[in-house]
Automatic annotation (TrEMBL):
Residues 186-206 are annotated as: Disordered. It is found in: Cell membrane. The keyword Nucleus does not apply. Its main location: membrane. The chain crosses the membrane at residues 48-67, 79-100, 112-134, 154-176. This is Cytochrome c oxidase assembly protein. Keywords: Cell membrane, Membrane, Transmembrane, Transmembrane helix. It is a multi-pass membrane protein. Pfam families: Caa3_CtaG. It comes from Prauserella endophytica.
Amino acid sequence: MAQHLVVAMIAPLLLVLARPLTLAQRALPPQSARRVLLALAHSRPVTWLVFPPLAALLDIGGLWLLYRTPLLAATHHQPLIHAAVQVHVVLAGLLFTFAICQLDPLRHRWNLAWRGLTLLAAGAGHAILAKTLYVARPPATTYSAVDLHTGAQLMYYGGDLVEIALAAVLAVQWYLATGRAHARLQRRQRRPPLTADSPPHTSRDF
């Protein structure tokens, strides 16, 4: 469970906060590589992949499939299944975090309402899953009650901490957007209205 928190939640959050697309665009040569990366980020499939509810379904839905079906038990005996599950957990966690934060330039930036409501729903789904693990072990596994309770508590409280960090990112974005809108409104209110007696603007006025 500690591995799940680090790989699927904490590491994606730190990576997304580093703005990897923006960094790559600045570091890559201005020729084909940068244009290809920008075209990929602005493509229609990426736009829909970072649609917050879809990203949450892939992430939280995958966790429910892992822990509430015999899939987790299968990963203990099948290395290929284990590797595939780990890759999915990493990519789904990264996609969800990217869809919630949306700090890098995208073709379409989903508004804060979509992202905030999705974060609440995903947090509820993650918390409910942790509570089910507290009372019932994953199918076909033999975890002891002590390990089961410890893992479920780690998932519940650790997930809350990461979700609070994501909510803080959204709060900062909302604060900055509201501040910019308020500043634009103040500038419009300070601008004197034009009247018939107002002298025309010339190039010297600027």
